[in-house]
Amino acid sequence: MHVGPSISNYNVLSSATVPNIGFASPEFNSAFKYDLEQFMKITGADESYVPFILPGGGTVSMESVVSFLKKGSRVLIVSNGAFGDRWEKIFSRYPVEFKVLRANAGNIVPVSQVKAEVQEGGYDAVTLTHVETSTGAKVPVKEMAAAVRPYVDLIIVDGVASVGGERINTSEWNIDVCLTASQKALGAQTGAGLLVASQRAVERLSENSISGFFLDLRNWLPIMKSFLAGGGGYFATPPIGTVFSLKKSFELIEEETPDRRFERHRICSEAFRKGIKEMGLEIVAAENVRSNTVTAVYLDSVKIQDFLSTALSNGVELAAGVHEQIKDRYFRVGHMGWVEPANIINALTVIENSISTLGGKVNKGSALAVKGVFERGLSGF
Ligand code: PMP
Fold it and tell me: Any bridge partners for residue 55, and if so which?
């Protein structure tokens, strides 16, 4: 139940264990094409977008967006926590100007504040973090994108903790870049950063782009287009095992259907939050911004590190806090990818027992209390 890599599906993980198939082989070409197409589908990107799959992870896809910027470009960073702040760390390495709007832990910068800033600011781009993994707070991307669209050229969404678990309609919501990593809500093996880029974004790739060599998307663009057209190509070695693992993930997503997958995430997260409340614990994210993929929970009555080790020795791996403001006062849980009701019930039981073993304050019986959520929610499944 870590926030990423997320819960395993052994078919998906073992699909990565292929022989070292050449990246020019027909098997690889067809797996890569399938992944690119399916990734566009799960992000709601129409055919005017270009998908990219790069070796690496979320930070690679984040940093690759500097390809769309040039010297002196102005970027507004909307940061609701540690991963929003990562944009600041990235952009500070490049000759761009940026400003950061920040929210307190568990909250989000309101749409009205972001709109007021872009109206005044003359920004080229704005970055949003769909689900802030350090707190579990979710941005209403559709609303936010509609509010800023008239004032900025590029709307960039970090969907690392959302794509595959939360609905996102890149074309319809007029987003320019939606990016993620293979190991989170897509539930595949670690090793790939993925993004889709709008025509508007792709047109900004030029000699004046400020990226370095490896992450210059101009180097990857013809390769991606070639794979999409049924061919192949090489710029740098792709993450071959991860491409096959992603293929298995996407096949399972197709089988389940994206709608049912999003609904499963919604139900599992609702049940998890209910169980946490039954225990008498407080959720970090404000009530109206809670995500379906990550929940952060305050825990004051025992030491967080002791709690995490006890939970781990009982078979459930949880994540420590990383938000600077509240770091030592909370823990995080990922319920994304292949999460099922049994994982939620097991996690709640282990959380409850770990706190009580350590002498902390907790109400017992949370797993039983969430039964109704699953019975109601999953009845149509
Ligand atoms: N953005 C968000 C929202 C994340 O949760 C993470 C990873 N936890 C990243 C970016 C960075 O991704 P990676 O660790 O795969 O580089």
Answer: 192
Residues 226 and 79 in one domain: yes
Contact partners, residue 97, CB within 8 Å, separation at least 6: 72, 73, 74, 75
| Cα pseudo-dihedral 266, 271, 276, 277, rounded to 10 | 100
Q: What is the pLDDT of residue 379?
A: 53
Q: How far apart are the first and last CA of the chain?
A: 23
User: In the listed set 196, 224, 255, which residue is the last one of a domain according to the structure?
Assistant: 255
360 CA to centre of ligand 1 in angstroms: 31
Asked which of 28-32, 232-236, 370-374 is least confident by mean pLDDT, the reply is: 370-374
185 and 265 both lie in a single domain = no
Taking the centre of ligand 1 as the mean of its atom positions, its distance from the CA of residue 183, in whole angstroms, is: 10
Mutate to test the pocket of ligand 1, among 79, 134, 160 (most ligand atoms within 8 A of CB): 160
| Domain, as residue range, for 373 | 258-377
CA of 323 to the centre of ligand 1 (A): 14
Q: Kindly report, residue by residue over 247-298, the tens digit of the pLDDT.
A: 999 999 999 999 999 999 999 999 999 999 999 999 999 999 999 999 999 9
Last residue of a domain, one of 207, 238, 255: 255
Residue 13 CB contacts under 8 Å (≥ 6 apart), including other chains:
189, 245
Residue nearest to atom 5 of ligand 1 (CA): 133
Contact 222, 199 (CB under 8 A): no
pTM, full prediction: 0.97
